[in-house]
């Protein structure tokens, strides 16, 4: 495949966008520099709609922007069941989880695990999150790097470095408030970019929308009755839906980057509103990103096919730079950068929050000082470098089908710890030794199952259920029933804002 290049005008647009994101970080520098509460939770002053938009942009990422269309391009819309699964868990989050996180007034999600199970589970949960998100940063840096290098001769190391370094800088500068408002800007850009790509594609295809629909129906590119059959088929919607519920439980209950945002609004009611905002945006994602992949399938089916040598993970940027006018293409490549940066910045800030609150402040301070902003910023740099290094490994292997890779990492490192949160909140019997046994068993089983023909969604189901069931049953072998969280903390309620009065030491 011949590289077509981006051209000067497109580079000007991309660089302008990147400079604008740095400006956002600079704007919030002073407000993020007071203490770690400001740096990690924005002082609880973020509007619900902005927090919801930020959760959406964080969970979407370049994985969705490039891998969702790739999935629809290669197969069908069956993975869209995962978006619907978000609505299945929002009531569970609002009823069971949000009150715990808000009432404990935690910066780190894993502070809850210490209150319920002790410091060892807090450390384990935090470490698993850090490992998982360094891997996630690697994939998210890799995808836009792939987008650029698939169509340009520029060195991939340079591209990955630019993406990573700029994210590190504006996360370093602006803290969580800067991250959230950057997410809002980036979310608007990436959604607008998706709409524009689909509109242009429809205009370029002879017959427009009717041709796309015809091609999709003739080639089973939407949803068919076969998608509802159980088995080992990758397109089995019941498996995708159930597996996505467990993946989402991990994301929304045991993943610091999302849980941290629950503290950025002023009340429980506002946090609940942010979750519904995110859910509505997740529905919007279905026709936009799956529709983009279906449109691309029709476009290339009617124009001789995708050129040989084009990695299918780069089908979106390849279409952009080979089809769209200069300037417009640059703006849409910037949308891919936006999808990546919204996730990377959130991961970096949250990794920093875990290291500071779960390790430094927990084990090396008698009293929490809350003035570790400089150290937090240093950790942002270190985590960013580690993620970039892992991304360069993916670049060297030219990895395709990165969504399944991401799901594999989620099933191995993420979902088992979500079961630990569920055990703590939903059961009284679960205790520390039993939970550790369940966690270790789930990780081993997930690793084994990943070598079978089961889909990543089935792996997530197995991982969660093994961690939950084994952890619960194993707890009966130990006398300690664990701590009753309601007996450890006293609260006073003023309207719907819950303020902690005292915590047990």
Task: Tell me what the structure shows.
The protein has helices spanning 8-27, 29-32, 36-41, 48-74, 81-104, 111-117, 119-149, 156-204, 208-218, 237-254, 256-259, 268-301, 315-323, 328-363, 373-397, 402-426, 432-449, 456-475, and strands spanning 489-494, 497-503. The chain has a two-stranded antiparallel sheet with strand order 1-2. It is mainly alpha-helical and 505 residues long. The radius of gyration is 22 Å and the shape is globular. The protein contains 18 helices and two strands.
Topology:
Elements: H1 8-27, H2 29-32, H3 36-41, H4 48-74, H5 81-104, H6 111-117, H7 119-149, H8 156-204, H9 208-218, H10 237-254, H11 256-259, H12 268-301, H13 315-323, H14 328-363, H15 373-397, H16 402-426, H17 432-449, H18 456-475, E1 489-494, E2 497-503
Antiparallel strand pairs: 1-2
Helix pairs in contact: 1-8, 1-14, 4-7, 4-8, 4-12, 4-14, 5-10, 5-12, 6-7, 7-8, 7-14, 7-15, 7-16, 8-12, 8-14, 8-15, 9-12, 10-16, 10-18, 13-14, 14-15, 16-17, 16-18, 17-18
Number of helices: 18
Mean pLDDT score: 78
Query: What is the terminal-to-terminal distance?
Result: 64 Å
Strand arrangement, largest sheet? Answer: 1-2
How many E strands? 2
Q: C-alpha Rg, in Å?
A: 22 Å
Order of helices and strands: HHHHHHHHHHHHHHHHHHEE
**Beta strand %:** under 5%
Low-confidence stretches: 484-505
Q: Any idea what the shape is?
A: globular
């Amino acid at each position: 495949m011949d590289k077509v290049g981006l051209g000067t005008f497109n580079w000007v647009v991309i660089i302008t966008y990147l400079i604008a994101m740095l400006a956002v970080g600079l704007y919030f520098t002073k407000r993020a520099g007071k203490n770690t509460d400001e740096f990690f939770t924005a002082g609880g002053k973020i509007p619900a709609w902005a927090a919801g938009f930020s959760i959406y942009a964080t969970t979407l990422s370049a994985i969705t922007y490039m891998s969702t269309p790739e999935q629809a391009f290669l197969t069908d819309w069956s993975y869209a069941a995962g978006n619907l699964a978000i609505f299945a868990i929002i009531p569970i989050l609002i009823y069971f989880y949000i009150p715990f996180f808000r009432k404990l007034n935690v910066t780190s999600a894993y502070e809850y695990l210490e209150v319920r199970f002790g410091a060892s589970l807090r450390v384990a949960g935090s470490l698993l999150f850090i490992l998982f998100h360094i891997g996630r940063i690697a994939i998210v840096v890799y995808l836009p790097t792939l987008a650029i290098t698939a169509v340009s001769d520029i060195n991939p190391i340079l591209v990955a470095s630019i993406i990573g370094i700029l994210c590190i800088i504006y996360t370093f500068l602006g803290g969580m408030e800067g991250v959230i408002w950057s997410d809002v800007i980036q979310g608007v850009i990436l959604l607008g970019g998706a709409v524009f790509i689909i509109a242009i594609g429809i205009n370029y295809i002879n017959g427009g929308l009717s041709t796309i629909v015809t091609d999709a129906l003739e080639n089973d590119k939407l949803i068919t009755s076969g998608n509802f059959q159980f088995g080992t088929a990758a397109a089995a919607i019941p498996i995708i839906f159930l597996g996505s519920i467990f993946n989402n439980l991990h994301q929304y209950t045991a993943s610091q980057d999302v849980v941290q945002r629950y503290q950025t609004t002023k009340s429980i009611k506002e946090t609940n509103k942010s979750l519904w905002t995110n859910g509505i945006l997740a529905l919007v994602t279905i026709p936009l990103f799956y529709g983009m992949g279906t449109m691309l399938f029709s476009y290339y089916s009617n124009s001789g096919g995708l050129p040989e040598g084009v990695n299918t993970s780069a089908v979106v940027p390849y279409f952009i730079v080979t089809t769209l006018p200069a300037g417009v293409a640059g703006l849409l490549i910037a949308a891919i950068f936006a999808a990546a940066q919204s996730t990377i910045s959130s991961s970096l800030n949250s990794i920093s929050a875990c290291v500071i609150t779960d390790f430094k402040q927990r084990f090396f301070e008698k009293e929490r000082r809350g003035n570790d902003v400089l150290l937090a910023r240093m950790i942002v740099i270190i985590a960013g470098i580690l993620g970039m290094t892992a991304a360069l490994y993916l670049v060297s292997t030219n990895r395709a089908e990165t969504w399944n890779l991401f799901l594999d990492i989620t099933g191995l490192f993420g979902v088992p710890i979500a079961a630990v949160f569920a055990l703590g909140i939903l059961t009284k019997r679960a205790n520390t030794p039993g939970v550790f046994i369940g966690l270790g068993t789930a990780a081993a089983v997930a690793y084994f199952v990943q070598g079978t023909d089961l889909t990543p969604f089935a792996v997530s189901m197995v991982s969660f259920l093994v961690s939950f069931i084994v952890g619960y049953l194993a707890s009966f072998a130990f006398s300690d029933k664990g701590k009753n969280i309601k007996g450890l903390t006293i609260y006073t309620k003023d309207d719907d804002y819950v303020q902690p009065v005292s915590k047990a030491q």
